[in-house]
Amino acid sequence: MKIVEYEDKYLEDVKDLLVELEEYLVSIDKDELDRIHPEYREKMAILDLEKVKNNNGKCYIARENNKAVGLIMGCIFPYDEYDYLDYKCPKRGEITELIVSKNARGKGIGNMLMDKMEEYFRLLGCKYILVDVFAYNEGAIKFYDKNGYHSRMYLNIKKLED
């Protein structure tokens, strides 16, 4: 197992992994709001990688037997004026994507990717790391809890009658 920094030669691997993640999220979405748009595969990786590039971020790929089996993306987003009015604003990184391919889970790859991103954030002086987790993704919630993360905010949803 090797963790490498993203290079353009891994773009198709990133696309495949992001599609695998989105297909999983669609399958567990109890609200049936998520979808895979016909342009998802071609556009989402480019958008994610551009966000990483523009926000002092990194993308790391887990490779096993010359195949990408996982990825993590993270950014250091700036605060805005609203943030400064009611928040101390310590420097923080944000994990924007994390996926380990279904066939490669249980080998510690997620932990290796997290360690690599946490190391990067520490190097840049971050004091905290944020990660959004889909509420129905119970496996991911357990993974993050096990790695020392905890909930700070909740986003609630209610469907209005038609």
Describe the overall structure:
- The model has no long low-confidence stretch (mean pLDDT 95).
- The chain starts with a strand and ends in a 16-residue tail after the last helix.
- It is built from 5 helices and 5 strands, in the order E-H-H-E-E-H-E-H-E-H.
- 39% of the residues lie in helices and 20% in strands.
- The protein has a single domain (2-146), classed as 3-Layer(aba) Sandwich (Aminopeptidase), CATH 3.40.630.
- Strand 4, helix 4 (109-123) and strand 5 (128-131) form a beta-alpha-beta unit.
- It is globular, with a radius of gyration of 16 Å.
- It has helices spanning 11-28, 40-54, 81-86, 109-123, 138-146, and strands spanning 2-5, 58-64, 67-75, 92-100, 128-131.
- With 162 residues, it is α+β, with helices and mostly antiparallel strands.
- It has a 5-stranded mixed beta sheet with strand order 1-2-3-4-5, sandwiched between helices.
**Main sheet: strand order:** 1-2-3-4-5
Strand and helix order = EHHEEHEHEH
Q: So how many helices?
A: 5
How many beta-strand elements?
5
Protein structure class: alpha+beta
Q: How much beta, percentage-wise?
A: 15-25%
Poorly predicted runs: none
Give the topology.
Layout: E1 2-5, H1 11-28, H2 40-54, E2 58-64, E3 67-75, H3 81-86, E4 92-100, H4 109-123, E5 128-131, H5 138-146
Parallel strand pairs: 4-5
Antiparallel strand pairs: 1-2, 2-3, 3-4
Helix pairs in contact: 1-2
